[in-house]
Amino acid sequence: MRWGWKTAGGIGALALAGLVGVVVGVVGWGGFNTVMEATNSMEFCISCHEMRETVYAEYKTSPHYQNASGVRATCADCHVPRDWTHKVIRKVQASGELYHWLIGSIDTKEKFEAKRHELARREWDRMRASDSQECRNCHSFGAMDFHKQTPKAASAMQGAEKAGKTCIDCHKGIAHAFPDVTAGHRRLFAGLSEQAKALALKPGDTAYALTGLALYTAPPAPGSAGDGEIAAATPVKILAAEGGALEVEITGWQRGSSAQTLYAQPGKRITTAKLSAAAAGRAETLRTVTDPETEQDWTEVRLTAWTGAGGYAATLGALWDYGARVYDANCSLCHAPHPPGDFGANDWIGKMNAMRRLTKLDEEEGRLLLTYLQSHAKDSAR
C-alpha cells in the first residue's frame, strides 16, 4: 500500500507539474502574442515622431486611409505578413529599426528625406520577393471586375496578370510620398565631378569623358564654338596639355558613308563622338571591316582634337559604377531591372527610347545610361 501510495503520489505530482507547465505555456504564449499584436497597432507605429510627422501624415491623405468603401488599411496590413512564420521573421528584422531609432538615424526630417529612397527601396524589394502578398490579402486579379474599371486600368491589370507581374512593380508611392530616386546617383556624380577637376593628366595617359565634352579642331579660345562632342565614357589618349586644354586622340568607327558620328564598336551603335563636317574631314582612316549580320561596311578612324581639361575620369570602372547606380535607381520603379546582358547593344536603343519618358533623368544622364547598358550588352566586346 505504501508503494502504491508513493506511486500514485508521484503520478499526481507529475500531473500537477504538467498542468502548471501547460498553464504557464498558455499564459506565456498569450502574453507573447498579445505583445506582438500590440506592435502591429497603428498607435504603436506612430508612437515616435519620425513616423507620425512624415509617413503617417502622408498616409492620411491617401485612399488607404479614407475612401468610399470605408475600409482602412493600417500600417501592419501593408508591412507585416499575416502568416505566423513570416510575421515572426519580420518582427525579428524590425529589431534593427529599434536600434536605429535609439541612435537617431532618422530623427529629423532632413535625415529621413536623405534616406527615404533607401528605405522605400528596401520595402519594395521585400514586397516583390513575397509576390506582394500583403497587397493580395485585399486585392486579387480574380476578384476584379474589369468592366467597372476604366479601359486603361482594365488593360493594364489584365496585361500585368498575363505577364506575371506583382503589385509593387506598378504601384509605388500609393500611401506615402514618392522618394527622389535621382538624389543618390546625382550625389555620386557630384563627387566624380570634383575628382575630375583635381585630376592632373599628362601625355600618354588614358582618360574617360565623365560627361559630354565639346571637341575642337584647334586649342579652344574662350567662347569659341565647338566642332563636335565627345560622349560620356569615351576613352581618349592624352597627347598634350596646354593651359586649361588637352590635346587628345580618339578612335572610333564610322558606319557606311556616315562620317560625322563615331561608334565604339563595328556593328554596334554605341555613340562615342558627334563631329562637324570639318572635324570629320580630319579623321585618319585605319581599316574597314564588314559587319556579318548587316553586310554593312564599318571604317575605323583616328582623330586628333582638343577639349577642355577637368572633365575626365581616371578609370572606366568609376563611370560604370555610376551607370549601374542610375540604372538600379530609375529602372526598378516599374519592374525588376533586366540585366544589361539580356539584350543586344542595338536593342537597348529602342528600349531606352520607350522607357526614358517614365523617368526623371536629364539628357546627359540618359545618354550615359544608354552607353552603360550598350557596353554591357550580350553582344558587346568589353
TrEMBL record:
<feature type="transmembrane region" description="Helical">
    <location>
        <begin position="12"/>
        <end position="32"/>
    </location>
</feature>
<feature type="binding site" description="covalent">
    <location>
        <position position="331"/>
    </location>
    <ligand>
        <name>heme 5</name>
    </ligand>
</feature>
<feature type="binding site" description="axial binding residue">
    <location>
        <position position="171"/>
    </location>
    <ligand>
        <name>heme 4</name>
    </ligand>
</feature>
<feature type="binding site" description="axial binding residue">
    <location>
        <position position="335"/>
    </location>
    <ligand>
        <name>heme 5</name>
    </ligand>
</feature>
<dbReference type="InterPro" id="IPR051174">
    <property type="entry name" value="Cytochrome_c-type_ET"/>
</dbReference>
<dbReference type="GO" id="GO:0009055">
    <property type="term" value="F:electron transfer activity"/>
</dbReference>
<keyword id="KW-0472">Membrane</keyword>
<keyword id="KW-0997">Cell inner membrane</keyword>
<feature type="binding site" description="covalent">
    <location>
        <position position="167"/>
    </location>
    <ligand>
        <name>heme 4</name>
    </ligand>
</feature>
<feature type="binding site" description="axial binding residue">
    <location>
        <position position="49"/>
    </location>
    <ligand>
        <name>heme 1</name>
    </ligand>
</feature>
<dbReference type="GO" id="GO:0009276">
    <property type="term" value="C:Gram-negative-bacterium-type cell wall"/>
</dbReference>
<feature type="binding site" description="covalent">
    <location>
        <position position="135"/>
    </location>
    <ligand>
        <name>heme 3</name>
    </ligand>
</feature>
<feature type="binding site" description="covalent">
    <location>
        <position position="170"/>
    </location>
    <ligand>
        <name>heme 4</name>
    </ligand>
</feature>
<keyword id="KW-0479">Metal-binding</keyword>
<comment type="similarity">
    <text>Belongs to the TorC/TorY family.</text>
</comment>
<dbReference type="GO" id="GO:0005506">
    <property type="term" value="F:iron ion binding"/>
</dbReference>
<dbReference type="InterPro" id="IPR005126">
    <property type="entry name" value="NapC/NirT_cyt_c_N"/>
</dbReference>
<dbReference type="Pfam" id="PF03264">
    <property type="entry name" value="Cytochrom_NNT"/>
</dbReference>
<comment type="function">
    <text>Mediates electron flow from quinones to the NapAB complex.</text>
</comment>
<feature type="binding site" description="covalent">
    <location>
        <position position="78"/>
    </location>
    <ligand>
        <name>heme 2</name>
    </ligand>
</feature>
<keyword id="KW-0812">Transmembrane</keyword>
<keyword id="KW-1003">Cell membrane</keyword>
<comment type="similarity">
    <text>Belongs to the NapC/NirT/NrfH family.</text>
</comment>
<feature type="binding site" description="covalent">
    <location>
        <position position="45"/>
    </location>
    <ligand>
        <name>heme 1</name>
    </ligand>
</feature>
<feature type="binding site" description="axial binding residue">
    <location>
        <position position="79"/>
    </location>
    <ligand>
        <name>heme 2</name>
    </ligand>
</feature>
<dbReference type="GO" id="GO:0009061">
    <property type="term" value="P:anaerobic respiration"/>
</dbReference>
<dbReference type="InterPro" id="IPR038266">
    <property type="entry name" value="NapC/NirT_cytc_sf"/>
</dbReference>
<feature type="binding site" description="covalent">
    <location>
        <position position="75"/>
    </location>
    <ligand>
        <name>heme 2</name>
    </ligand>
</feature>
<dbReference type="InterPro" id="IPR036909">
    <property type="entry name" value="Cyt_c-like_dom_sf"/>
</dbReference>
<feature type="binding site" description="axial binding residue">
    <location>
        <position position="139"/>
    </location>
    <ligand>
        <name>heme 3</name>
    </ligand>
</feature>
<keyword id="KW-1133">Transmembrane helix</keyword>
<keyword id="KW-0408">Iron</keyword>
<feature type="domain" description="NapC/NirT cytochrome c N-terminal">
    <location>
        <begin position="16"/>
        <end position="180"/>
    </location>
</feature>
<dbReference type="GO" id="GO:0020037">
    <property type="term" value="F:heme binding"/>
</dbReference>
<dbReference type="InterPro" id="IPR009154">
    <property type="entry name" value="Membr-bd_4haem_cyt_TorC"/>
</dbReference>
<keyword id="KW-0813">Transport</keyword>
<dbReference type="InterPro" id="IPR036280">
    <property type="entry name" value="Multihaem_cyt_sf"/>
</dbReference>
<dbReference type="GO" id="GO:0005886">
    <property type="term" value="C:plasma membrane"/>
</dbReference>
<feature type="binding site" description="covalent">
    <location>
        <position position="138"/>
    </location>
    <ligand>
        <name>heme 3</name>
    </ligand>
</feature>
<keyword id="KW-0349">Heme</keyword>
<protein>
    <recommendedName>
        <fullName>Cytochrome c-type protein</fullName>
    </recommendedName>
</protein>
<feature type="binding site" description="covalent">
    <location>
        <position position="48"/>
    </location>
    <ligand>
        <name>heme 1</name>
    </ligand>
</feature>
